[in-house]
Amino acid sequence: MLRYLLNFFYPPRCSACIRRLPLDTNCHVCGECLARIEPLREPLCAVCGIPLGAELPGGNQWCPGCTQSPPHFSRARALTSYRSLDEEAQPVPSMIRRHKYGLDQSLGRALAECLGDRVPFVGEDYDVVIPVPLHPARLRWRGFNQAALLGGAIARRLDRPIEVATLMRVVPTPPQTSQDRRQRQLNVRAAFAVKRPQLVANRRVLLVDDVMTTGATADECARVLLRAGARRVDVFTLVRAV
Percentage of the chain surpassing pLDDT 90? Predict the structure, then answer.
């Protein structure tokens, strides 16, 4: 009843398309927008999760990038794809942009709602969930870490603990939106450190972030976690650039 009254005076709208939602809803994203979230289709690279387009000869399911330079993480998967040319037509990338750069923390709930039952990991395979951290200066400016909000939702779904103060970003790296793969790798090199190695030693880690573009950030985080003693690092992101 209270929700209905609140919705009556403050009519709810879909966080993606701004369409009015029913007064008795407790949802943040409408059914039409949820239906527009296209999952990544097989075949995918067995490592980084990028669509391969077709089966590769010889049964090899590694993309050229992972074949030439294998990342430190074992497997990366994403909820959906991201194409920069039509970002506004894609519900999840559009909300991520407003979440991060519009400083709208409330969109964290809507993005978690988009996950539904499509988290491609099993809780029994992991010991801890760790979000990709922000540098303290960036965290103060934004007011929240979008990866930590997402990581909390993933941890609850998998019934696993989340560690938000173990992996630290120690170098305030500049934005990477206009950089190529090599530039991104150099940009994040030595940008992360593990503050409490005993919390990752011999543990299976699920690393969580909002977007994977070239995979440079996830790879560097995985390298640092493995060096600190982690047994395995897998990666989950909401979107994967294709």
Answer: 66
Q: What pLDDT score does 188 carry?
A: 83
**Percent helix / strand / coil, the chain, rounded to 5:** 40, 15, 45
Q: Is the Cβ–Cβ distance between 168 and 134 less than 8 Å? A: no
C-alpha distances (whole Å) from 4 to each of 9, 12, 84, 173 are 9, 10, 38, 45
Pairing of strands 204-212, 128-131: parallel
Distance CA 238, CA 95 (A): 11
Q: pLDDT digit string (tens) for 158-215?
A: 999 999 999 999 988 776 666 667 777 777 888 999 999 999 999 999 999 999 999 9
- pTM comes to 0.90
Is residue 63 within 8 Å of 47, Cβ to Cβ? yes
Do 240 and 78 touch, CB atoms closer than 8 A? yes
Q: How far is CA 50 from the centre of its chain?
A: 14
What architecture does CATH give domain 73-241? 3-Layer(aba) Sandwich (3.40)
Is residue 138 over pLDDT 80? yes
The DSSP code sequence of 135-156 is PHHHHHHHSS-HHHHHHHHHHH
195-208-91-153 Cα dihedral, nearest 10 degrees: -90
The domains of the chain are located at 73-241
